[in-house]
Sequence to fold (254 residues):
Amino acid sequence: MFYCCAVTSQGIREHNEDALLIHRLVLTEGMTESRLTAPFIVAVADGVSGEKGGEIASETCMKMLREINFNSHTDLDRELTGIHERLAQLGAKDDQTRNMQTTLCAVGIDENEELHTVNVGDSRLYRYRNGSLSQLSRDQSLVQMLYEEGSIRHWEMGTHKQRHIIFPVLGNLDSTPIFDIQMHHEKVEYGDILLLCSDGLSDTVSSLEIEEVLSRPKPLVRRLQILRELAQENGSRDNISVLALTRIMTERKR
Fold:
């Protein structure tokens, strides 16, 4: 059994281009809490800023993703290619949504309760374990590439003038995205928190700040609200979405 909670907000923007998936529920504003039994998928999508219809792209992506009957045998590469192609087709039909695109960061828990992860773009997946936060996803972005080749230092990534340039994501009319799909062959440990977020959070709240908030003895959903508030206090000018997943004990029947 798993517990999932999520918060999404438009922040200072006029529209929320983020969307969340919690098994079959698509969330585009507000907060939710759920108990989930495997198999299921949870995800964060962020409509690409600067493209028309970003909010349509992210919500549509989540609606398509929830239709997947996910299990350990699911061909995620094929499923995501299908979603990408359908988004591109929809985007090409209307000038208002032309070339609409979205990032995707997702966690799948299969029927054996083993962990699968997906990343396309720069939304992020972290794991909080034993008081320490680690990033499981790899940003598909220009600054990440520059950092890995040694052209910039780690501390420069957050302020680099090209930090918002990302590689092709779902719906791109010119290029097929690279789907970073991982089967981890491990289960989520009790006490772990898997945290998925859009860059409205990760651009303004550091890993150390996230780690400190997650360490607080408060309900998990309240900790997510604090992270959202902290992003706003730190000057986030984007939509802010964060989702947390943790394993819980199954209640025994008397």
